[in-house]
Amino acid sequence: MEQELISKKELLELTGISYGQLYRWKRKKLIPEDWFIRKSTFTGQETFFRKQQILDRINKIKELKDDYSLDELADLFLSSNESSAVPSPNPKIALQKEELIKRNIVSEMTLNLYLQQMGDRTVFPYQQILCVYLLETLLKTGELSLDEGKMMLQTFEEHYKKFEGKKCDLIVTRKMGVSSIMLVSSSSEIHFDNGVKIVVRLDVARCIEELNLKLK
Amino acid sequence: MEQKRRRDLTISGIMGGQGGTYHSVNLNGVGKVNGHLDCIHFHCHGRVKIQGDVKVEQMAEIHGDARIAGNLESGKLKVHGKTNVGGYVSGEEIEIHGFLKVNSHCEAESFCARGGFRINGLLNAGTIDIQLYAPCEAKEIGGETIRIQKPGAVSPFSKFIRSILPRIDVLTVETIEGDDIHLEYTRAKVVRGTNVTIGPGCIIDMVEYRQHFDQDKNAKVLESKRV
Fold it and tell me: Which domain of life is it from (chain A) (predicted)?
C-alpha cells in the first residue's frame, strides 16, 4: 500500500519548522534515517516523507519538546519505533503433537496438561504452539502452579486474539493465595494495592521471538 | 567502577593489536588493530589501520594517517593528519586541521574545518564553520548555522604562494539547507534557507530563501526565489 508522499519543502511550510530544526531532530534520532526517502526530480535530488507518518511525529515533537529534552524524546520514540515492529507470528506453521516433544519445544508433562484442559488433538497450529510454549516457560521457572497453568491456558486462548498485531504482556498476580491472570498491552502501566504480588510479567512478543528461533 | 576495569592499549613501533574495551588507546608508529575499539581516550600518531568500528567516549585525536574501516563515534574529534573512515562519523565536536574522508554521513553538534574534507553523504551539524584552506566536498549539508569563508592572506609569503597556485580551495556540494547560511567560494546546485548570504566566488544554480537574501557582486546565482 503506497502512502501519500510529501516533499521536505512542503513539510516545512505546512508545519512551520525550519531546516535547522529538522536537521537537529534528525541528528538527535527523533526522526529515523529510513523515513527520509530520496528521489531524483528535475531539480536534482529531493527528499520526501510519508505524509501521515511524518506529520504525526512532528506534531508530537512540537507538543512535547517544551516539557522534555530532545534526548528524552529520542528514547521515547525509539521504544515506540521498536514496538511498531511486532515479531510476526508465523501462522503457516503447524506441528504434530509428537513433533512438539521431539523438537524440544515443550515437555511431555506440559503437553498432557494442555490436552487435558483443552481436549485431545493431534495437530497444533501456531497459536496453540505459542500457548503451550508460554505454559512451558512459566511452569519450568516454577512460578506457576498446575492449577494456575490451566487458568492461564483459558485466558490466553480466549483473549490473545484481541491483541492482533500488538505487543502484549502476560501478568500473573497473587493476593491472599488467590491468583489471577491478565493480558495487558505492553506499553501500559498498571499499579495494584499493597496486598497484590506480581508473580511474573511475561513479554509475549519476546516469547514469540524465542519460539520462532526454535521452530526454524 | 566500569572505568577501573578498563586497561590501556599502547602500540609503539611496528605492531598489531586486538580490538576491545580500553581506557585509553595510544597508537604510535605503524600499527594495525583487528576488531572494534571501545575506549575513553584515543590518540593516534603515525600510520594506523583499524579493521572495525571505533567508539570513543571523550576525546579522539588523530595525527598522522589513520584508516578506520568501520564507523567512528567520538565525543570530541580532532583530525590533524589524514583520516579515512569507511562508515559514518558522529560526535559532539569535530575539528579538522588536516584531511577527513568519510564514506557515509557525518553528524556533530559543531563542525569546524580548517583543512579539507570529503563526505560522501550528508554533513549534518548544528553549527558548521568552514574556513577554506583546501578543497572540500560533501554531498549534502544541513544544519542551523552554516558559515563558509575563505581566510584572507595574512603574510606576503602566503599571498605569493596563493598567486602561483590555481584557486582550487572551493567547497563543492549538491544541496545546502539551513537557517542562517553564509557562503563564500562555494559551488552548489541548490541552497535553501531562512537567511541566505552569498559571498564572493560562489556559483549557485538556485537559491530559495524565506526572509533575507544577499548577494555579492562577485557571485554567480542563476536563480533565486522567495518561498
Answer: Bacteria
